[in-house]
Amino acid sequence: YVQGTVVPGAVVSAGAPVEANYANGFLDALRAEYLRGQEGAVGDFYSDHKVPGSVESTLNPYEERVRNAVNKEQAINMIAVGWADPAPAAAPLPVVPTPASAAAGA
Fold first, then answer.
1. Rounded to the nearest 10 degrees, what angle do helices 20-34 and 72-83 cross at?
2. Distance in angstroms (rounded) separating the CA atoms of residues 24 and 43
3. What's the pTM value of the predicted model, to 2 decimals?
């Protein structure tokens, strides 16, 4: 980790309320603080990465949600899932010839 850079731990973007680099760094900071016991990790993230106040204000309710959660890991994961890129549309299933269609020359 180099100060001023954000190394994504989980790839988010489409559903995140802030730019992906902030969203990823914030999720990493939440995990550090609330799962690994690194006190002040979220605040350090904000200051180390010069996160604008508007972004911090947007993210604060998410930290509050985790802080108040009984299961903090689940709360963080739910935020990450909500911010993840939507799943790509399912590819159409291949058409596999059945013996009857193969015999008919289909």
1. 170
2. 15
3. 0.69
